[in-house]
Design brief:
The protein is an all-alpha fold and 73 residues long. 63% of the residues lie in helices and 0% in strands. The longest helix has 17 residues.
Amino acid sequence: MHRELLNRGYDVNHKRVQRIMHNLGLCEKDYDSFETFSKAIDEYINYYNNERIQSKTKWMPPVKYRIASMCSA
């Protein structure tokens, strides 16, 4: 399914979406339906908002960092 989404049109917004999908690793898989593709995006958004860690959040997931920073303020 992703090939149809990626190869349709050449406008700037499409290229931006294509780059984002590639960076997320969504281009490397074939999806049977829009529902499975949508589920993969939802899982990534959940990971990005709740589980990923990085140095600027003091090695905490973003949600925990927000809670910790609100408590210390």
